Amino acid sequence: MASLGIALIGTGFMGKCHAMAWSHVRPVFGDIPDIRLETLCDIDPELTLQRSREYGFARAETDWRKLIEDDRIDVVSITAPNNVHREMAVAFLEAGKHVWCEKPMALTLDEAEAMAAAAENARGRTLLGYNYIKNPAVMHAKHLIATGDIGDIVHFRGQVDEDYLASPDVPWSKRARIDLWGLGTLGDITCHLVSFAHFLLGDIASVAADMGTVVKQRPVPGTNEMREVENEDIAHAIVRFKSGISGTLASSRAAWGRKNLIRFEIHGTKGMLVFDQERLNELQLYVSEGPEATRGFRTILTGPSHSPYGQFIPAPGHQLGFNELKVIEAKHLLDCIASGSECFVNFAEGLKIERVIHGMARSARERSWVEVN
Ligand SMILES: NC(=O)c1ccc[n+]([C@@H]2O[C@H](COP(=O)([O-])OP(=O)(O)OC[C@H]3O[C@@H](n4cnc5c(N)ncnc54)[C@H](O)[C@@H]3O)[C@@H](O)[C@H]2O)c1
Question: I want to staple 161 with a disulfide (CB 3.0 to 4.6 A). Which of 10, 75, 154, 261 is the partner?
Fold first, then answer.
């Protein structure tokens, strides 16, 4: 494969993150195809032109449909909002392109199913933006589980909290509308927690959940009006994995003080692993060995012995950041394109995550256990 042409849709938070990933993946990993930054697409013409120059793209475009039949484009990064993921992803897959789409997959389970069906029949690879599982510390946790360092796994405890909607003064926005944004905390952040669970321990099979909205109305900007928040601020569940392992998932977008807490504990018969995204270069390991008096959690600080950390930095403890996880994700997509193998999380695996979060919403509404996978 001589080179790959890239189109990027969206220039916001995730748009910039994907742009950095595409620019850095070759300098970091070396032996990969030449990357051509072909087209940057967003809806504001002036801003898109400005960003295309800053990010290094050859062209700026405001109509994403013009990219569908453009033969210079091989891979499309979709970082536009959730309500356009399905339409864009399906069109690009049908045109034979590879698609890297941000999470959550879509607004509804029906849309996610349509995306997975399109991917099944497509020539292109698919990847969803579950960046946190690309962390070398998390990959090391998976390795320690596989080697039996903490014995047989008996329990998963997951928590994801942020405070971006904790204040009642945050104005009403499209985030509050189910038809434009979809689920609340479940779609925004619980899906990341499920990606950890599925990556480390396999699929969740059933859920029993509860959910609620803390701030039920928010002020509409520029008016005296208060408008209803349609989706959930808090959701939590007890879960059962296909393997029989039990677990809990807890999530809030109204948890004061939490900026990006994504924490899991993996309980084993011989020890425990603990990870927290707010300290993303560390993994905590407890092993029930040695004299009781000197036992305790050990902090493993990531370094070159935790691949692919060493591709970025030759010295241990100097620490990776959020944007570097996206570079690792880009490399994973390029590897899968080269080998023809499936990415994790591809659209088929992403659909399983959507079944868990939508299953949690259904379980909470019906006040009963729901089979999800
Ligand atoms: N992986 C992660 O950790 C992570 C973090 C934040 C957001 N996200 C996801 O990324 C996506 C985008 O979120 P964001 O925070 O970057 O949003 P954002 O609002 O900062 O950026 C979205 C961009 O898409 C553009 N856009 C909207 N409609 C468009 C269209 N029809 N054609 C072209 N451009 C269009 C907007 O103008 C905007 O520039 C969401 O799906 C979100 O859930 C993922």
Answer: 261
